[in-house]
Amino acid sequence: CLVNFAVKPGLSSTILLYEFDPQGRLVHRHSHAVPGFAFLHDFAITPNYCLFFQNPVSFNPVPYAIGLKGAAECISFNPKQPTQAILIPRNGKDPVQFIEAPPSFVFHHANAFEADGKVYLDSICYREFPTLKGGEDYRQVNFDAVPEGQLWRFELDLAQGKATETCLIERCCEFPVLHPDRVGRPYRYLYMGAALRSRGNAPLQALLKRDLETGADQLWTLGARGFMGEPNFVPHPQGQAEDDGWVLMLLYDAAEQRSELAILAAKDITAGPIARLKLKHHVPYGLHGSFTSQYFGPDAKA
Ligand SMILES: [Fe+2]
Asked: Which CATH class is domain 207-302?
């Protein structure tokens, strides 16, 4: 099924949840009011819960309404307030649970799963909201002044109402993806964009695969002038192992001012691409990626 959400932010915010069956029919819809302003970019699911992080941010709409600032510039971070993990039961009936976690900011969650009577949530966390000033030349951004994203695991103990957090990846990283069949379930492999240097904030110029069972990493670097957005994991149709498949990524070669689609065997990221489809032009950044097995090129059947 497909699970999706909408949020109506305000002094109190409303989260709406939708579940669709494989035919695209809406089978479940429920809404929940949560106290305070909620800026929710992403969520995670398990068999029983929808998980959100309500980070300690507030929104002043006035400069945005009168055209002085962009919406993201009107968000301010309050480091004295905790993050609230919000667990909404997917049955729409049981009570919503709130668990406090240390203050941070999250755009993207990697995955969540249930084990040992607890709920685990893996997320790319920033130590505060990564603000960029309007009108600043993007080529002049001081990366060290902006917090980097790092992968953290939150163990949510529902019985105790307690969160325990562990940093899994300190290297600056974003856009985590995994085998689609492992979404919401215990999983082993995570793929993401990462910085070339192992500490501090920097652009995403490497593909990183983390084995969450052993802690081992595989890294393929795009070189000094290569930049990437979100990778995509495409499972092998007859694959057995969780990393049986390919990682597709659109990368930008700044030296050539062209983009290319690189395809890597997910089992061996370090070996680099098994195919590179070089375009004659660049593709503007879209941040996220998606994959379909449907062919849209010349002679495609309608
Ligand atoms: Fe996003």
From this structure: alpha beta
